[in-house]
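Inverse folding, one chain.
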């Protein structure tokens, strides 16, 4: 094998290594909300690799994570609410939860019209209710769920 072929093989190997490295990079983002009182929670939504993750951390450092619907479009939202009993409520296409403490945990919930909208996480960050109205896209032309159906739109 002559020197030119060796150089070509080395360059090809370097290019392939670069392509593989680029494809495995995590172009994730993390959006963070303010802390919520009296819950004393920090709520974040982000993407790591192909997964969207909701994270809750309390003042004692307890952490709860849940996978959300995989990112598919620019308007995928995770909405935050104050429930009728003062807890933090969360609605996402992956479901609805109520945040419970001592110990910190998520409980599946049925959202009611008495949940007060607090704000939303979108791809470009967290927006409080004063900056982004309550909205959720309808997925795949399916009818909206019966709970809080007035917030569902063809496009937010």
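Residues assigned per position:
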């Amino acid at each position: 094998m002559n020197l030119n072929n060796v150089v070509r093989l080395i360059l090809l190997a370097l290019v392939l290594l670069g392509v593989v490295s680029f494809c495995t990079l995590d172009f994730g983002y993390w959006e963070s909300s303010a802390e919520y009182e009296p819950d004393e929670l920090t709520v974040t939504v982000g993407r790591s690799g192909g997964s969207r993750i909701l994270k809750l951390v309390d003042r004692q450092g307890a952490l709860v994570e849940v996978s959300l619907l995989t990112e598919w479009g620019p308007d995928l939202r995770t909405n935050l609410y104050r429930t009728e009993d003062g807890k933090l409520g969360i609605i996402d296409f992956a479901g609805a939860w109520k945040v419970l403490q001592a110990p910190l945990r998520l409980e599946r919930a049925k959202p009611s019209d008495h949940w007060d909208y607090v704000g939303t996480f979108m791809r470009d960050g967290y927006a409080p209710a004063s900056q982004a109205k309550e909205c959720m896209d309808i997925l795949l032309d399916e009818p909206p769920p019966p709970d809080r159906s007035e917030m569902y739109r063809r496009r937010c």
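The longest strand covers residues 41-48. The chain is about 15% helix and 40% strand.
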